[in-house]
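[job 0412] stage=complex_fold ligand=FE2/S2 (inorganic) cluster status=START
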Amino acid sequence: MRLYVAYIKRVLPGETARSMPLDLNDNYTNSALRVGDVDRDPQRPVGEFIGNVVSNAWVNDEYKHLVLKVHERALKAYAGQMFHLLCPSPDGAEVWMRRPMSIYRVDQAAGVVEFLYKCEGRGTRGMGTLQPGDEFNIAGPLGAGFKLQPSWKNIVVLGRGVGLATLAPLSQLAAAQGVGVTAILSARHEGVVMSKDLFEGLGARTITVLDSDGTSAVENVERILEELIAAGKADAFFTCGSNRLLKLMQRLGKKHNIPGQVAMEQIMVCGFGACYVCVRTFEVDGKRVLKRVCRDGPVFNMQEAVGW
Ligand SMILES: Cc1cc2nc3c(=O)[nH]c(=O)nc-3n(C[C@H](O)[C@H](O)[C@H](O)COP(=O)(O)OP(=O)(O)OC[C@H]3O[C@@H](n4cnc5c(N)ncnc54)[C@H](O)[C@@H]3O)c2cc1C
Ligand code: FES
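[job 0412] stage=complex_fold status=DONE, emitting C-alpha cells
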C-alpha cells in the first residue's frame, strides 16, 4: 500500500507514471506538517504530522517511552485520544497499516507529544528502532477522549499494563482542573509498574497492586475502592487495560451510583471511522448496539461497555 501511495504521489501533471522512480523509503504523503510549517488549515482538529524523535528510551524490559517534537496543531491532543502511527519496519519488509497508540503526555511548552508503548509485534518493534533525530509520521489526534465534569472533585483511576499509558494523561487533565486523583496501578510485578512518576508528579496519590504479592486480586482492589468511596474520594471511575477490573468498576459504579469512563482497545485499520473494522458491542438503554472504537471512542461510558 505504501508503495502504491509513493507511486501515485510522484505522478506530476505532464508525467507518466512509468517515468517516475519508486523510493522504497518514501513513507510520507506531501500534506504532512513538519515542525514550524505554516498551517493552512488550523481549524482542522486532525492532521498528518512528521515529527522529530527527541528520545526513545526503555523504561523497563518491555516498554519504551517515545518523545516526539511535533507541529503545534498536534499538541491539541488530549487525554484518551490516540494517534495512528506509521511505524518503520524492524526488518526491512513492509509493515502494513498504521498502529493506534494513546497519547501518554502532551508538553505544550516543549512542543512534544509522548507515547509509552510495549514492544510487541513488528510495528512496535520497528518503532523501538527510532533514534533521536529520526522522523516519524503520525496521524491524529483521533477519537473521543476522557471528559471531566465540573462537579467531580475527586476521581479514581484504575489501570493495568499498557492501560496505564492510556490513563496517565488523565493526571494532566485533572491537575489542570483542580481535581484530586487516586490512581490504582495494577501490574504483574514491581518492574512493570508504569506511570507512577507521572501521576505523582502531578499531585495524584498512587496505590500499587501486584500479582507477585497477591495485592492485585479483585477482592483486594474491591476493598480499596470501597474505602475510597466511603472517604468521598470517588466522584467518578476511570479504567483501561483489564476486563476483570472493568467488571469490578461497573459493579461498584452501579451499586454506589458512580459514573465512569473506560478506554477500549480494538484492532484498527483506518482509525477515523470509515472501515468499521473496529466495531464492538455496547449496551445502551438495554439494547445491544455496535460502535466504532476509533470514532465513537476509544473512551466510552463505562456502564455501556460489554467487555471482552
Ligand atoms: C485506542 C488504542 C490505544 C492504544 N494505546 C496503546 C498505548 O498507549 N501503548 C501501547 O503499547 N499499546 C497501545 N495500544 C495497542 C497497540 O495499538 C498495539 O500494541 C499495536 O498495534 C501492536 O502492533 P504490533 O505491530 O507491534 O503488533 P502485531 O501483533 O504484529 O500487530 C498486528 C496487527 O494487530 C494490531 N494489534 C495488535 N495488538 C493490538 C491491540 N492491543 N490493539 C489494537 N490493535 C492491535 C496491530 O495494529 C496490527 O494491525 C492501543 C490500541 C488502541 C486501539
Ligand atoms: S478503524 Fe476504521 S472505522 Fe475504526
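Residues 73 and 188 are 37 Å apart (CA to CA).
[job 0412] exit 0
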